[in-house]
Amino acid sequence: MIDLHTHTDKSDGSTDAGDLVRLAVREGIEALAIADHDTLAGYDAAAPVAAEQGLELVCAVELSTRPGEAKLNGRRQPSVHLLGYWLLSPPSTEFRCWLESQQESRRRRNVELVARLEQLGVPVSLDEAEVYGRNQVGRPHFARVLCDKGYVANMQQAFDLYLADEAKASVERDEPSLEAGIQRIVESGGMASLAHPVRLPQRGSELAGLLKRLIDVGLQGLEVFHSEHSSADTAEYSELARRLDLIATGGSDFHGDNKPRIRLGTGIDSNISLSYSFLENMREMCAARQHRTSGKR
Questions:
Q1: Which ranges constitute the DSSP H helices of the chain?
Q2: How many degrees, rounded to 5, is the angle at CA 103 between CA 143 and CA 279?
Q3: Strand 80-86 relative to strand 56-65: parallel, antiparallel, unpaired?
Q4: Quick one: 237 and 183 in the same domain?
Q5: Domain termination site, one of 163, 192, 215
Q6: Contact predicate 167/143, CB 8 Å
Q7: 126 belongs to a structural domain
């Protein structure tokens, strides 16, 4: 069994990177990808523990990007997430430096978010959010503080009222375009895969059209298997990947206590089960494409 989409407390997960590795070993997972949001810090922290435990650790990241048209019908479009996998070589130094600039953008957004919440009469300090997000503070950490202070009944209400893209305290964060995110991953030696397509507004032919456009700028994969995908969703995305010659990727999107329904390796109600051969196939397809690309130069 493998899991190629997990998060640690270096982004919006609740689990320490080393503890995640040890949990994966206990669960019988053979290969694990840590894909924290806009950072490789979780992967870096887990690497020595994985080596000690004999677990294969895959370098990955999940980038937050914006679609080509930032607004649709006057409304801000939600982020589109991209998974980057480095299956054949490590990411470049330039890519790591660029990720740090993304972290700075996130920090600026958090300062503005604190000010907005203060104006709305629900004061929350950055220090309070940092109790939950010590390494990277995001909206889920602010949501937990809003719950703690009794401003909302639960995490979902925190997002609905204050934190979601169109909510009262929403603050836009500088994010790369979807196309620029793909290019950053590819130029650094990675493969780019569109994450959890079920969250996108496009389905059917509209989604196929989007994927074709993204393939032209370097997209190589599509996350076919995900905890939020129904069996019908998985069948649809599997067929799309086959038809468009995209590499199928998959994983649970494990966040620990922050998404308690999702189990490492098996998703929600055991709706995911990926064998090691799945990862081998991803590597083989990446290597073949790299060979074809180098042959054209």
A1: 17-26, 41-53, 93-119, 126-132, 139-148, 155-158, 178-187, 204-215, 231-244, 276-296
A2: 90
A3: antiparallel
A4: yes
A5: 163
A6: no
A7: yes
| Token output for 291 | 């060979």
What is the CB neighbour count within 10 angstroms for residue 43? 25
Instruction: Write the burial class of residue 40 (CB in 10 Å: 0-12 exposed, 13-18 middle, 19+ buried).
Output: buried
**pLDDT tens-digit map of 92-128:** 999 999 998 887 777 888 888 999 999 999 999 988 8
| Tokens read off for 235 | 């069948």
d(CA 106, CA 124): 17
Does the residue 146 lie in any domain? yes
Angle made by CA atoms 147, 6, 104, in degrees to the nearest 5:
65
Cα 193 from chain centroid? 10
Neighbours of 68 (CB within 10 A): 11
Question: pLDDT per residue over 181-236, tens digit each?
Answer: 999 999 999 999 999 999 998 889 999 999 999 999 999 999 999 999 999 999 99
* CATH number of the domain bearing residue 126: 1.10.150
Q: Residue 74 has what pLDDT?
A: 54
d(CA 281, CA 202): 27
Condensed to tens digits (0 to 9), the pLDDT of residues 129-143 reads 888 766 678 788 889
Query: What rounded mean pLDDT belongs to the chain?
Result: 90
pLDDT at 290: 79
Expressed as residue numbers, the domain containing 37 is 2-98+177-296
